[in-house]
Amino acid sequence: MNSPAPRSFTSWLTNKPYLLLTLTPLFWAGNAVVGRAVAGHFPPITLSILRWTTAFLIVLPFAWPHLVRDWAAIRERMGTMVLLSVAGISIFNALQYWALEYTEALNALLMQSSGPLFIAMWSLLLLGLRLTWAQAAGIVVSLCGVLVILLRGDVTALARITLNKGDLIYLVALAIFGFYSALSAKRPAIHNLSFLAFTFGCGALCLIPPLIWELSARPVMQFTPSNLAVLAYVAIFPSILSYLCFNRGVELIGANRAAPFFHLIPVFGSAMAIIFLGEKLRLFHLAGYVLVLAGVFIAARSTPSPRIAGRGPG
């Protein structure tokens, strides 16, 4: 009797939603930090269009045979695909980088924690999906953990946070990403690489009109080695790898169950600060990590939401 062929690592990974949704915030964790660090060096539309054009060119050779096969399905749902591209690629990221020119890191991390609430709102409006009690409890518990980390265990720090226009722009960006996450349930049944290539390419094209305005109104980006390194980072990690993991994870367990994984972004962010910036590990870090992970576990292990119609890589 022939033994079954061993499964490839890729095949194994693409069927592990909790691991995929843990990798997603890991890849996203540095994006806000990088965006804040390059504010003033990269105009926001320029950074967005270069990010997605680079990501598109990297993905296209791998996606091409799937795009050819899936084109009929894409054409049938072209309106939905274009809307997903504009919302999740063009508008969300341009607003995010624009907001980071004004908002503080603490504010941005706090606002990222509202992501699951926006996803729940759009899931209810677009799909008629309500949060289960376990999902709602998980979001609340993990949000408490995020607050413990960000406020360094000092609740009075909330009174010292001030809002500016960057904060409002960032909230709008998160609301738009929540719309993208929920609307992904209506995507056609196509390969994930087809989905990425189309949305990356279409999203970049839709940024051309605002780019023309930005080039006439702001200084042009300088192509220095450090700027090119930033571009390579944002094209590969927060773009290709994170969206592959996020889209597949949502496909497997649904947007509402995936939403609490957003709370891992500031957890990974603070861990990176400890590892790379020499910050000390304190008791409030450990308390916050425990709460976040408990909340994610509670929500993710709840009754499954309907899966997105589609197929994963393979």
Task: Describe this protein's structure.
α4 runs antiparallel to α8, α5 (105-112) runs parallel beside α8 (165-183) and α6 packs across α8 (165-183). The two termini are 26 Å apart. The longest helix is centred in the N-terminal third of the chain and has 33 residues, at 44-76. The protein is built from 14 helices and no strands. It is an all-alpha fold and 314 residues long. 73% of the residues lie in helices and 0% in strands. The protein has helices spanning 9-13, 17-37, 44-76, 78-99, 105-112, 115-127, 133-150, 165-183, 192-206, 208-217, 225-253, 255-258, 264-276, 283-300. It is globular, with a radius of gyration of 19 Å. The model is unreliable at 1-5 and 304-314 (pLDDT under 50). It has one domain (16-300).
Give the key terms.
314 residues, mainly alpha, globular, disordered N terminus, disordered C terminus
Instruction: Tell me which oligomeric state these chains represent.
Output: single chain
Percentage beta strand: under 5%
Structural class, from helix and strand content?
mainly alpha
Number of domains: 1
Question: What is the 3D form?
Answer: globular
Q: How many strands in all?
A: 0
Low-confidence stretches: 1-5, 304-314
- Helix fraction? over 70%
